[in-house]
Design brief:
The chain is α/β, with parallel strands linked by helices and 608 residues long. It has 22 helices and 18 strands. Helix content is 40%, strand content 20%. The longest helix has 35 residues.
Amino acid sequence: MRRETIWQLRQPVDIPPALLEFTGQDRVIAGYLVQRGITTPEEADRYLNPDPKNLTNPFELPEMDFAVERLLKALSSREKIGIWGDFDMDGQTATSVLVECLTKLDADVEYYLPIRNRESHGIAIPALEMFLKKGIQLMVTCDTGISEVASIRYAMERGVDVIITDHHALPDALPEAVARVNPRRLSQDHPLGSLSGSAVAFELMLALCRQLEREAIAFESIDLAAVGLIADMAPLKLDGRLIAQLGLQQLNNRPRKFVNAIFTASGNKNSTIDEQTIGYTIAPRLNAAGRLKDANPFVGFLTGRLSDTEMEAMANELEALNANRKWLSNQVYQSAIGQIERQPQIVEEPVILVSHPTWEGGVLGLAAGHLAKEFHRPAIVMREMPDGRYAGSARSVEGIDIIRAINAGASLLTTHGGHPMAAGLSLRAENLPEFKHILFRHVLDQGFDPEAPAVIELDEELSLAQITPEFHYSIRKLAPFGIENPPLLFCSRRVYITGTKPLGRTREHFQFTIEDEQGNSTQAVWWNASESEIPAGWFDLAYSLSVNEYKGKITLQAVWTDFHMVEEPEEQTAQISTERFIDFRAHLDPMADALLACRGTDYLVYQE
């Protein structure tokens, strides 16, 4: 099932002498900075050393002045402010930022997150009607609202002013509201142009608190904004990157109660909270709550407004929900793989599109993400609904704006929304063939070639001896890594596996010991591996680097990205009937290691 890949070593760049001196003559770091347009020591210092003073003025966001003016009025008049968020991680943290900051400003605050299985994303009018009955006088949306024309009109017509804060793609006509604060109304290269919903919520609070000369209150919530921004895979560039840096810094200096509770319940002993901690430990658990249950109680969990006993109970509940989420997601993924094996043409199209009537709606996006990663193309996974609709989630790959392609067929859809890497949609079954035709054409128009091998760009070729804690420490200066700030990718030539250990309840991951011809070795981990594709013999490995913390022990490991088998010269294999030669001469006990490695196979040992 593996798609052919081509590795390209990045071309050396001209590094200004002053920049090279600033990085301590580290050409890997300096070259990475130059590739991102950073060429002076001043720019590099701003990139590597986060400073709150470097944040762009939040009033550069469209209609921010209207939003702040209306909030100031609500605070002075003691109006009841209603926060309407979303159930995913970005929506949960955006809601938490607004609730936490406004509460500290002595506001009268209510909040609501839609319940996925009942209302889905957005602002359903029946739920909105019940929410407004709580006496809401001003409603602030976060991570939602920019496409909810009818729902916003419903609230405004009932005398409730609405401030929209969102980051999703803009519709043809914006809702009529007091303010529509959305970074997509700016140019893409604007420092605030690619924020997540939680980051936009933070910018609103920063602008409000500056007007009140209480800026410190907004910064107390920047860690929540960072968690949502990283979890939502927003581009880590410009102000988005700076918010992530400052938030992670704060989270490590003063860990939140919810982080400690999740770590305890999950058995995670990490001493450092970084983008990987959020992406693999924190976000999946809180997203599971939104996908499979009611996320509303978890706003109190995120803001730490619960007792220690309640925090512990909710963390344990998240652990159980996450285990269920993984099981359900794997069921959908395996079922989708079965469809692909029966109909191989599915993966020959520019977008993988699969559906089934029994798939759990809350995990469709997760399955789509696995398919997109495995087959290097956008994927849409949908549930066939009893009312004749298809409803599902899309995930994309770098370079393809999936929401732009989906929007091209908007007239055929009943609902849709999202951003370049992830989206949701629904449509009538009879519209599916025409929608597929439009979708495929617009993905191809963006330059995607379904027949072309996937190209993997490598930053450096290393020997295993060069993988040291000191080297890893130097490249971590460029973190946090993510969209538009990818981790550095390396390759090592002619390595082989000397030890294999399955990980996960269903052996979905593997940990290896790999060794090169000189006897140097390192640990490697392959997440969501295909056991049948584990290479036997010499191969070249492409990988990034990470730290593994387990039971207090910290080890450096290669994170498996791709591999290419090494073809041995014919004259080597013609002399004896074996598939490969393994050189154990550098081992401490060569004969013992040789017998262990060859156990269960035919072998011939040459001993010096």
